[in-house]
Amino acid sequence: MSAIRLLVLGAVRQHGRAHGYQVRNDLEFWGAHEWSNAKPGSIYHALKQMAKQGLLHAHEIAPSTAGGPPRTEYEITESGTKEFFALLREALTSYDQKVDVLSAGIGFIVDLERHEAVELLQERVRSIEEWRASVTDYYTPEDGPESLGHIGEIMNMWVHSADAGAAWTRSLIERIEGGAYTFAGEGEPFVGVLAEGQENPYATGVPHAGDQT
Fold it and tell me: For the whole model, what pTM was predicted?
């Protein structure tokens, strides 16, 4: 699974309607260009591709009176919303997601209801534990990695990664169950997108041909 689809769908959904540069600006505001494949070319390609797939609706916007080329504004469709939540749930439950996918999932976790977020994270812990058990069928951590030669270091790394991932997930569950954050249906949601014209202190400032589309 690629993080870019989840990120782009989520950004458009939060805006209601947004043109490509707004989506790029939001993803740079979140730092996604540093921790994922959310580079300008990938963002603009994803927008056009998902519009073709019916996940986004493309609105052609006439040029403003101030001049400049017309832009396309995107709006998430019913199919796009279903895809967004499917990707979000997959990002939060799968033990083997890459860090960028899991990061994107955490970024949108409050779009879920609190109880579902907890259930999905509990499922992630179970998946991690099952995967760890499959590793220890062949490798006994207590014997140390040397028991399998230097290859044992690979399994040792997997076990430590599983333990760290499970511990972090349990701590997040504990915070959510303790009332942290505002989830869907609980009140005013966290606003994580920039308003039109709002300065982005984290923007790269590197121009791209797609910025004007």
Answer: 0.85
